[in-house]
Write a structure and sequence with these properties.
Radius of gyration: 25 Å
Number of helices: 20
Largest sheet: 6 strands, mixed
Helix content: 25-40%
Strand order of the largest sheet: 5-4-16-15-14-6
Strand content: 15-25%
Structural class: alpha/beta
């Protein structure tokens, strides 16, 4: 019998799925209007993760330099004892929650530790820089319905490699192209975008803002402006003055795109018909990533492609925008208030200088040691507090734990989740029993809360789901019956050009920062891009044997200088790691691609040599501003 459930991994497609527990098959729900009967290979192969030999399925406690299996009663008794001892100084408790899974119940640990007054983290390793940029422009996080791409005459894709990050957007673009839509992609290259693009333009990584400014310059010079659109902005004179003072050819030189290609992109936006703008998550992982998103939004706005069918600027919507909080249903603990926050992307240094020091750490949904910069410093800093990791495999974070608690994984637990791409809410019904002694995160924390000397009591799961759904006007009964429901949001965002700011007006960027000078000692740029086969660090151990690969163009100056028959090292100002060099066509000559998520314990963890660098907005992480070199030793 097939169970209707949903994918809760960190992916915008948020697929509704049909799971056959007996045959161990997974396929997309054909009744779901966005999933349309298919899913990506990560979801389709998920039983490999559930059944993996290396999966942890019983609680483990560190003893005598290793880990020993114990009962849940012993494990949670020890955790409760340590947590009680730390509660007299709430700041000495640290909670780190990631997006290894999502949903209404996925927020349980955040609400639980808020009730303890625990320290938490701020900053982002994902998309907050682009979100903040979008909010500064539009005032609210909305975008056209993804199906509206089918109404576009042209699509300009700024760096989104849909072959690796969204199979359903990829399918939409392929369908649109069959209907006559043209697609132009701007990216550093070396990706899968030629598969769905009519034209590809190679750009220097991190300089999209200069290309967008060059396009705006051409709009100004042509006088091709819609007065009505400009009246719906608060600061058009500031942007016009800024762009007037810029030199078109200097802008093209800064992004290393030819003037002819910049003029072509302008023509794509200026010609008759409507143009949709896709904005990749990678371009906001640079020092001026937020500025890049804002200048691209400005091109969409000035060209008259905001608030129209077939247009729009697509960056993100919030996957939680249809849900409310159920934290007020929790009994016990302290009332939510101000809490100490540590900067996530500099966590190693933050832990070292924390005063009072962190005595107890709880980490769930986040292989934080692997995923944040200066990873070895984080690993070292987590040796000092008593650390509990809720994790199903012995990854880089679990290895630093004092107690490992095995969670139920996707298909084994109940939840309801939304999407950062579409407007459907999906029901995640358990399709198989949790393996071994694994338990849902909700169940683990409900049990732990009752063991504390001053108990923290969670409501039952159904009460949490019903409360969380109130904002959406979707009933839990409807989700039980159908497996999903659509929440009503406008098909075309900002159709009347009324935006989310108090005055209803759009905001343009008013500054354009120069790109930092290249470091002659580290002249290349390291791009740690997403994988197609696995999500982030959810990589089987067998896939991480041997030396990790990097990809460069044969036009890269390092290619001719290296002896590829000898050991090659990827070096930064923080350290070096051995790599195997492969070549790829049409990649920017100064770019080095490495696929992210490899584990430190296998010598694949590239974040060990990436420095903590903030983006320009929302304390994002500028992974792609890390410079590097390739060398023999």
């Amino acid at each position: 019998m097939k169970t209707v459930t949903a994918c809760t991994m960190d992916c915008g497609d948020a697929c509704s799925l049909l799971v056959d527990a007996e045959k161990k098959t997974v396929r997309g729900n054909p009744k779901h209007p966005f999933t349309k009967g298919f899913c990506c290979k990560k979801g389709g192969r998920y039983f490999e993760r559930l059944d993996a030999d290396e999966r942890i399925t019983e609680p483990l406690v560190r003893r005598e330099g290793g880990f020993a299996p114990v009962s849940w009663d012993e494990a949670l008794g020890l955790v409760a004892e340590k947590l009680d001892a730390a509660r007299s100084v709430p700041e000495s408790i640290l909670h780190i929650h990631g997006h290894g899974y999502r949903g209404i119940l996925g927020m349980t640990s955040s609400y639980f530790f808020e009730r303890l007054g625990a320290s938490t983290v701020y900053g982002c390793v994902c998309d907050d820089t682009g979100i903040e940029a979008s909010l500064r422009d539009f005032g609210v996080l909305h975008q056209n319905d993804p199906e509206d791409l089918l109404n576009s005459d042209r699509v300009v894709n700024w760096g989104r490699d849909l072959t690796r990050c969204s199979v359903h957007q990829l399918a939409l673009l392929k369908k649109a192209r069959k209907n006559g839509t043209e697609v132009l992609t701007i990216s550093p290259g070396g990706d899968g975008t030629p598969e769905f693009s009519d034209v590809n333009v190679i750009i220097r990584p991190g300089t999209d803002r200069f290309l967008a400014a060059a396009v705006l310059k051409l709009f100004l010079e042509a006088g091709d402006l819609n007065p009505w659109v400009l009246t719906r902005t608060a600061n058009w004179p500031a942007l016009r003055g800024l762009v007037d003072g810029l030199n078109f050819r200097e802008l093209c030189a800064a992004c290393e795109v030819s003037p002819l290609d910049a003029e072509m992109i302008y023509e794509w936006y200026a010609d008759r018909g409507n143009v949709a703008t896709l904005i990749g998550w990678g371009l906001q992982r640079h020092v001026f990533g937020g500025e890049g998103v804002r200048f691209i939004d400005a091109v969409a706005m000035v060209s008259g492609n905001v608030g129209v069918r077939g247009g729009g600027a697509y960056f993100n919507i919030s996957s939680a925008r249809n849900f409310g909080s159920w934290a007020h249903l929790i009994e016990g603990g302290v009332e939510p208030g101000e809490r100490r926050k540590l900067l996530l992307q500099d966590l190693g240094a933050e832990l070292r200088r924390a005063d009072p020091p962190v005595q107890f750490a709880w980490i769930d949904g986040h292989n934080v040691v692997n995923q944040v910069p200066d990873a070895l410093a984080v690993a070292d800093a987590l040796e000092k507090p008593f650390t509990v990791v809720v994790e199903g495999v012995m990854n880089d974070t679990a290895m630093r734990a004092d107690v490992i608690l095995p969670p139920a994984l996707m298909f084994e637990r109940l939840d309801v989740l939304g999407s950062c791409l579409h407007n459907y809410v999906n029901f995640c019904a358990p399709a198989v029993a949790p393996r071994g002694q694994s338990r849902s995160d909700f169940d683990i924390l409900a049990d732990l809360g009752t063991r504390l000397s001053d108990p923290v009591r969670l409501p039952d799961e159904e009460a949490c789901l019903r409360e969380g759904l109130k904002r959406s006007n979707v009933s839990l009964d409807e989700l039980h019956e159908n497996g999903f429901a659509k929440v009503n949001h406008p098909y075309v965002a900002f159709e009347d050009l009324v935006f989310g700011h108090l005055d209803g007006l759009y905001r343009f960027p008013e500054t354009l920062h120069a790109e930092p000078e290249r470091d002659p000692d580290y002249p290349l740029q390291l791009l740690t891009l997403v994988r197609g086969e696995f999500l982030h660090s959810q990589i089987p151990e067998a896939e991480q044997r041997g030396v990790p690969s990097v990809w460069i163009s044969k036009a890269n100056p390092a290619y001719s200088a290296l002896d590829l028959t000898s050991d090659v090292y990827l070096a930064t100002d923080l350290g070096a790691m051995q790599v195997r060099v492969q070549t790829v066509e049409d990649l920017h000559p100064r770019a080095v691609i490495m696929r992210r998520g490899g584990w430190l314990k296998f010598g694949h963890g590239v974040n060990a040599i990436i420095r903590p660098i903030n983006t320009d907005m929302a304390y994002g992480t500028a992974y792609y501003s890390q410079t590097c070199r390739l060398e023999n030793r």
